[in-house]
Model the fold of this input.
Amino acid sequence: MNAAERTPVLVGIGTATRREEDWTRALEPMDLMLEAVAAAGADAGPPAALRGAQWIAVPRGRWKYANPAGEIARAIGADGAHEVLSTVGVLQQSLIGEACARIAAGEAHTTLVAGADAGYRLLRAQIAGARAPERVQDDAPDELLAPAEELRHPVEKRAGLVMPVGLYATLESAWRAARGESVAAHRDRVAALWAGLSAVAADNPHAWLRRAVPADEIRDAGPRNPMQAFPYTRFHCSTWNVDQAGALLICSAARAAELGIARDRWVYAVASSESNHMVAVAARARLDACPGARIAGQVALAAADWRIDDVDLVDLYSCFPFAVQVYAHELGLPEAVAPTLTGGMPFAGGPYNNYVLQSTCRAAELLRAGRGRRALVSCVSGIVTKQAFGLWSTEPPRAGFASIDVTDATARETPERAVVDGYDGPGRVAGFTVVHERGAAPRGLALVDTPSGARALATTAAPALVERMQREEWVGRTVTIERDEVKA
Done:
């Protein structure tokens, strides 16, 4: 089989979105996943397409299944398929890229990537004072993928930064300050950008929230839109309490032709690039940049022989505004355009560790509908800790599918700072936020550069300082730290 015949082709896409108020009637994640897989098989057409899967991968969600790929294999009759489970911290695009790379290398003719999360089911059960059960699924996968390092620095954990919103909001402040925006102007601009995302979600039949949300409703905190970490309200954050699943069925061009799948259904995998270099937020010398996004984006586009202006459809991973803005900047995309195909994770839905399957399905759907010829889908893991891109087209890649790892190149271009614990002395604020947690008083958080060039993480619960940190620009300000607490 020649290289052209081994070109990976996305032939089946399947999504599932369920919104059941009675949690006892809601599908558990495994059943949602199987529904999406069945939809992908039906989308491809011939039953043999799904049965022929030789490699099946699933990214872990908020569930305890030990080997969901094995259950999928049994359900579709894919005897002997290689079964893979990836933990949180592994890029979702890594699984998609590997699925394509195995086909391009001739190691498989059909691969399948599927995932699901049922956060709304969990939420409704919690409100009812119950716990949503799930079936016992405890056989072992053939392969378990996990990140090589921790996503968070120990000082971040000691500061109680369990959820990512506080760290993303800190990066956001550095981004704003580097561009010379005032706090108020920045809040206005980001709210307008997010309102643009919501308008796209309103036209997406698969979106969780199909309503165009006005910018002022996004910008300003209120009873149904509480502040999470200044300046992020709930509307700025990924909506993960959703019941959604996605599945991608990929074949070699030769296998797709053999099965008789119509050519106008084929979506060609052109390139997949990724950086797995991990630097915790506290240790990043530059909080307003993302070298991995720039490098991975450039190499993917170069491998495709595309410029960014050649791309018709763009979906940037939209867990928080910083991720969208920094990716758009590193790619050279205009800021005026809402870079989403789905409507973004706050509005279309951000199922835990599964959104890229939804965005890739939507990209394929739009390509097939003639809305464009070339699509770019980005991926993030952690606190923009890892970066990845998938390129898709209605036309075969000129030089064959490219799978590129830029981890080493990213490491060379990512300066770090030593992080100190228990710091006393002066420092210059590099990034800051105010974290709002249910049942607790707001607290300020600042990453501070010390005179020696190290980095410290300081907090404050002083009401006067907390109030000022939500009105004034603190990036660049010199403060006094005592035992990791901001004093002035």
User: Anything to note?
Assistant: The CA atoms of residues 291 and 390 lie 17 Å apart. The radius of gyration is 22 Å. The longest strand covers residues 8-18. The chain is about 30% helix and 25% strand.
